[in-house]
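> example.struct
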């Protein structure tokens, strides 16, 4: 397993949110990125956690954090374990009074929770080999810089305008 961090959130050409993970030791350029497509709700929750903000009302991941605290459990780490047919899989590693537990989860939920509690993130080497891409070093002009910046700005506007009540079931 390779320790990673959330580099940021972006949107793809179809305006779908993508969380970018990168190995912790990737200071050199171009660095490896692991893009994981997530839903809009999860993207907003990850963004709130990464930016150290608070939602006006608790989101699902805030509730998860509170539940862990209430039962005396700790989130030790989140592992993105595999990718199958384009779908990423992850596991929460918890310490509880009953012992150590590993719980299957969606990577987006694991990332959002880990960002809230300060738990480390890991990605399996096989996942990085399969899904990792090298960061654009600026030599490829496939997408003009202004277009990429506009996509990021549009996604940021979405995050700024989203209301947690929009996600109530």
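> example.seq
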């Amino acid at each position: 397993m390779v320790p990673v961090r959330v580099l940021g959130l972006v949107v793809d050409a179809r305006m779908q949110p993508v969380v970018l993970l990168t190995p912790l030791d990737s200071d050199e350029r171009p660095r490896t990125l692991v893009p994981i497509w997530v839903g809009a709700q999860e993207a907003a929750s990850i963004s709130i956690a990464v930016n150290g903000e608070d939602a006006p009302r608790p989101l699902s991941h805030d509730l998860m954090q509170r539940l862990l605290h209430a039962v005396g459990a700790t989130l030790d780490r989140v592992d993105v374990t595999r990718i199958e047919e384009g779908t990423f899989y992850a596991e929460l590693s918890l310490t509880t009074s009953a012992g150590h537990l590993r719980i299957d989860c969606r990577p987006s939920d694991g990332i959002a929770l880990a960002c809230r509690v300060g738990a480390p993130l890991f990605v399996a080497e096989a996942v990085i080999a399969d899904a990792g891409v090298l960061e654009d070093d600026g030599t490829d002009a496939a997408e003009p810089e202004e277009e990429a910046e506009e996509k990021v700005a549009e996604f940021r506007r979405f995050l700024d305008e989203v209301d947690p009540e929009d996600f109530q079931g």
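> remarks
The mean pLDDT is 85.
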